[in-house]
Write a structure and sequence with these properties.
Layout: H1 2-8, H2 11-43, H3 48-80, H4 82-99, H5 106-120, H6 123-134, H7 137-148, H8 150-169, H9 171-179, H10 181-192, H11 204-210, E1 218-219, E2 222-223, H12 228-232, H13 235-266, H14 274-300, H15 305-320, H16 326-332, H17 334-362, H18 368-401, H19 404-429
Antiparallel strand pairs: 1-2
Length: 434
């Protein structure tokens, strides 16, 4: 890999670093609220049951707006292009993140959350399209794993900074200061980004390497000019969408409820959740990069892209399953629970790097953002379904019984089985190319 970079150049990795930065900001902005829930509950005078219900409703409002935002964001990015599309999305979600700090009650907080959901939807369709434009197929999973690890870094930065800001200056400033980081990214984006054909900093050798795959105007018989209705008729679209529907909710669950789990199970709050939460996302960050590295090694050893992707994703699905023992291990020692949740989070991010890359494996570059948008919409809808059918009913029920730990035990079993089910459905729909 290093020898290749020395010969052909490394500017594509500069672009990857911009995607990493944007994804870090994206997840930092959405993770802040989970850490501020106790402060907000006190400020808005929520009871214990109201805290669960109101927080879940606000979480659902975000997921719903994010889901439908995804459906339109992907098509918008494909039409407008990555440079202006990504910039507009980041600018607007940064405004929305800052607006949380001006909320005066449950309704205004939910409204800010809806605005954040719609605008944050642009990140992944844009990032996956940029990756398809800037990397050959064999490097795309690694590039995706690297930039997607930004979601973990954002989730690490949040517990290490947000509680401290909240206690020093108030919960409102935590939203304002973290939300403002996106405006700094915009400056770097306009300085360093352009599509490969227009990027003067890119050498001809690296340009040729990026475009070294066979003609991608047409892949697996699919034309580059595919309409929404055409995409929805394809098994490949549904494979990606079902995979996201079943596994995205698990990641949302970690993101929004991990601090709450640590609070109820081990009576940690505020600064106390910082280290264990950060450790889980450090695991996840390593998993994201490893998840992109492993299939590249398979491909370099003459595996087909299809076999490398399928095998890697099966390994990652199996690595999630030990989470069903999280509370049993946690009864022995809290850090055992943290480690097994961290393993599951790492496996999810490895899975995520590959499920995103599977889109550019089977679709032309010009359609990738649209497919990512459609599939991510289903991922958001799956998260809403989990919140409505499991978390809102299950958690409220067991909170009233005074046994919230039982609700988490059930949730961990759901986490453990979702990826294997998704893997079976995906690879049933995506047949091996002959």
């Amino acid at each position: 890999m290093n020898n290749i970079n020395k010969v052909i150049g490394t500017y594509r990795w500069t672009i990857c670093s911009l995607l990493f930065f944007a994804t870090t900001v994206n997840y930092l902005d959405r993770a802040v609220i989970a850490l501020l829930k106790p402060y907000i509950a006190t400020a808005f005078q929520w009871t214990a049951v109201e805290e669960i219900q109101n927080y879940t409703n606000i979480e659902i409002a975000f997921k719903l707006s994010y889901s439908f935002g995804m459906f339109f964001a992907g098509r918008f990015i494909d039409k407008v292009g990555t440079k202006m599309g990504y910039a507009l999305a980041t600018c607007l979600w940064s405004v929305a993140a800052v607006a949380h700090g001006f909320a005066t009650g449950t309704a205004s907080l939910a409204l800010a959350r809806v605005f954040l959901g719609v605008t944050e939807a642009g990140n992944f369709p844009a990032a996956i399209k940029v990756t398809a434009e800037w990397f050959p197929k064999k490097e795309r999973a690694l590039a995706t794993g690297i930039f997607n690890s930004g979601s973990n870094i954002g989730a690490i930065i949040a517990p290490l900074s947000v509680p401290f800001i909240a206690e020093a200056w108030g919960w409102q400033w935590a939203f304002v200061l973290t939300g403002a980081i996106g405006f700094f990214w915009l400056i770097l984006w306009f300085i360093y980004y352009e599509v490969p054909a227009k990027q003067q900093r890119l050498s001809q050798t690296e340009f040729d390497y990026i475009h070294s795959d066979p003609d991608e105007q047409k892949i697996n018989g699919l034309s580059a000019s595919l309409s929404w209705s055409s995409l929805l008729k394809l098994k490949q679209t549904w494979a990606f969408s079902l995979g996201k529907f079943l596994t995205d909710p698990i990641w949302w669950f970690y993101l929004f409820w991990l601090p709450d789990f640590l609070n109820h199970q081990y009576h940690l709050s505020g600064k106390g959740v910082a280290l264990p939460t950060a450790l889980v996302y450090i695991f996840a960050s390593v998993g994201s990069i490893f998840g992109g590295w492993l299939p590249m090694q398979f491909i370099n050893n003459n595996w087909s892209v299809f076999s490398a992707r399928r095998t890697s994703m099966l390994i990652y699905a199996l690595c999630v399953t030990p989470i069903v023992f999280a509370q049993i291990l946690g009864d022995i020692n809290m850090w055992l629970a943290v480690m097994v949740i961290g393993l599951a989070a790492a496996a999810h991010q490895a899975w995520s790097a590959n499920i995103y890359t599977s889109v550019s494996d089977v679709f032309p570059k010009q359609a990738t953002a649209s497919v990512v948008g459609i599939g991510s919409m289903f991922g958001g809808l799956g998260s809403i379904a989990l919140s409505l059918l499991v978390q809102k009913q299950l958690f409220v029920h067991y909170e009233k019984l005074g046994d919230i730990q039982a609700a988490y035990h059930i949730m961990f079993f759901i986490c453990g089985g979702s990826y294997l089910l998704a893997w079976c459905l995906m690879w049933f729909l995506i047949k091996s190319p002959r």
